[in-house]
Amino acid sequence: MKLILLERVEGWGALGDVVNVKDGFARNYLLPRHKALRATKANEKVFEAQRAEIEARNAKAKEAAAKGGEKLDGESYILIRQAGESGQLYGSVSGRDVADSIQEHGGKVERAAVVLDKPIKTLGLHEVKIRLHPEVTVTVTLNIARSQDEAERQARGENVITSQFEEDRLADQEAQADLLEGGAGSIQGDYVEA
User: Cα separation of 124 and 12, whole Å?
Assistant: First the structure.
């Protein structure tokens, strides 16, 4: 289906471009969200007559998104989740979780604005892109941890998983040294040979 884009659409084109997209994409996404018009002679005339107004409206929306993005860009959010010993989450962190966390802290982000290629499934610091407008993208940092203390340690740059394994290894070495020092397996005391 041939369409005239009313705003920049990632991977397809900029405002005013005439593009040929699949019917489903046009009917289910672009047309209902007013991102495009069908490329008919009548719509082309209407678009050209209103082009300046559409560009001004788009510039205003971009400016508003940029202003809102200044508050979000570079922010860090802590998400407490359950995870196994190796740092693998029981479940995952999705776009909805990210949007909810930002909204809890006073930000205004829709779930659809969160750009996640795949769900986050491990503890640690993760950078996530938020697309507030087709031309405005900001980055926030998610600190996913099992506890508030662990989140603070991760924020300081400590890798809590490797440090946990290191602590366990040192504790095991200490226990082995105690056993050897105490004479593990030796019998103390007076005993008579028969």
Answer: 34
How far is the C-alpha of 71 from the C-alpha of 102, rounded, in Å? 11
CB contact at 8 A, 34 and 3: no
Domain that residue 32 falls in: 2-62
| Region class of 147: left (phi > 0), else alpha (psi between -120 and 50), else beta | beta
Alpha helix (H) ranges present in 26-77?
A: 41-72
Per-residue pLDDT of the chain (194 residues; tens, 9 = 90+): 999 998 888 888 888 889 999 999 999 999 998 889 999 899 889 888 888 888 888 889 889 888 888 888 888 898 999 988 888 889 889 889 999 988 898 888 888 889 988 889 998 899 999 998 888 889 999 999 988 888 888 888 877 776 666 666 777 777 777 777 765 555 555 656 65
- 46 and 86 share one domain: no
CATH of the domain at 144: 3.10.430.100
Place of tokens 């998983």: 161
Task: Determine the longest span between alpha carbons in the chain, in angstroms.
Answer: 115
Together in a domain, 45 and 87: no
The pTM of this model reads: 0.69
Q: Cα torsion for 99, 108, 110, 11, to the nearest 10°?
A: -110
